[in-house]
Design goal:
Mean pLDDT: 91
Largest sheet: 10 strands, mixed
Helix content: 25-40%
Strand order of the largest sheet: 3-4-5-6-9-10-11-12-13-14
Shape: globular
Structural class: alpha/beta
Order of helices and strands: EHHHEEEEEEEHEHEHEHHEHEHEH
């Protein structure tokens, strides 16, 4: 069987991870277990269009084949452990349990144009951004393609409908899990699967420069969102340790090259943190850094994280920052705040759950 076949050999499974296979890999797999090639499309459709959780639900397969699949492969386990629903705007936040008992988060958001889901790409995160709850405790492991698909499929089951857009901005750094994320996106967008156009996908990165170039060359059509949060190296290195590896100059060069290669406008995320990066001087630095780029600035009033001590300014302070940039001709918006009554910032629900488990 080819080197690209996904195999899990831990103590939970010594079987093939069929949920992480694309159509070509499933074709190779079914032939290996002595089945005709046409079975591959049937299995793939059951997994990624009908989104079944067990092989016995694949009713157009023989009982013998279903038993063979149970013996040789597994369907990724992702189950909803806890769900919070906002009484303000219908946002739903999910704590999801994986097959190895690790937990991640996903957030369902309702918009006029349809539902959007924000998912995790890793269990924990190693990037260490000072305003983020996801990175507390560091990186446990990266998610497989099947686990990322499983997040979507499980939440859609819970909500009773499908998403129209996707955001990779939950727990973890997508470009730190590059190969699995690209495999996941390929399966997600396939015609035999969920068939979600990647133009409806936004991928958020802290700025891993080499992988921005790798992503650009793939020309996926997705929207790249870059977490900037400061416009000078000293301040950004304090807020985001990744800046010590890839400076703002290197990051800006990569972003400009990304636009040249793909023609896709970049969105810059900027979390407004009281006393850190929300004054007129910071706004001026941000303007000088981004002027002339075909880009969008997405301002985010920071979500307070008790372990970090970060706070946000007043609405008036935020509007001053916005007006200053708008008067300079910049394309800027303030992110609509959803799920404020359910603590919808990623990482906090998982953190609270783990703290409760450790106290028991």
């Amino acid at each position: 069987m080819g080197d690209n076949m996904n195999i899990r050999t831990d103590e939970i499974h010594s079987k093939y991870d069929i949920s992480s296979m694309d159509i070509d890999e499933i074709t190779e797999f079914v032939q290996k277990i002595g089945e005709p090639k046409f079975r591959a499309k049937q299995i793939y459709t059951w997994l990624n269009d009908k989104q079944v959780k067990i092989f016995d639900e694949m009713t157009n397969l023989s009982v013998a084949l279903r038993e063979k699949l149970k013996e040789t492969a597994f369907i990724t386990e992702v189950s909803a452990l806890h769900r919070l629903t906002s009484q303000k705007d219908g946002t739903n936040k999910f704590l999801l349990k994986l097959g190895d008992k690790n937990c991640i988060e996903a957030v369902w958001m309702e918009y006029k144009h349809g539902a959007s889901l924000c998912i995790s790409t890793q269990v924990g995160c190693r990037q260490g951004c000072m305003f983020c709850a996801s990175t507390l405790g560091g990186l446990v492991r990266s998610l497989t393609a099947g686990e990322m698909l499983g997040e979507i499929y499980e939440v859609q089951r819970q909500m009773g409908k499908r998403i129209s857009s996707l955001v990779l901005m939950g727990i973890g750094e997508p470009l730190d899990n590059f190969d699995n994320v690209m495999k996941f996106l390929g399966i997600l967008s396939s015609k035999e699967g969920q068939n979600l156009s990647l133009r409806h996908v936004s991928l958020s990165t802290c700025g891993i420069v080499p992988n921005i170039y790798k992503l650009a060359e793939l020309k996926t059509g997705l929207t790249l969102s870059v977490s900037l949060h400061a416009a000078n190296n000293e301040k950004r290195s304090k807020l985001m340790p990744v800046n010590r590896r890839y400076s703002i100059d290197e990051l800006m060069t990569a972003c400009k090259d990304y636009f040249k290669i793909t023609g896709r406008r970049i969105s810059y995320e900027y979390a407004l943190i009281l006393g850190e990066n929300d004054n007129k001087e910071s706004a001026d630095e941000l303007y000088n850094l981004l002027k002339g780029q075909n880009c969008h600035i997405n301002l985010i009033p920071v979500n307070p994280v008790k372990e970090r001590g970060t706070k946000r300014g007043t609405k008036e302070d935020i509007q001053k920052f916005v007006k200053y940039l708008e008067n300079k001709g910049m394309n800027v918006t303030v992110r609509r705040e959803l799920g404020s009554d359910i603590n919808a910032a990623c990482g906090q629900l998982r953190r609270d759950y783990e703290n409760k488990i450790n106290e028991q």
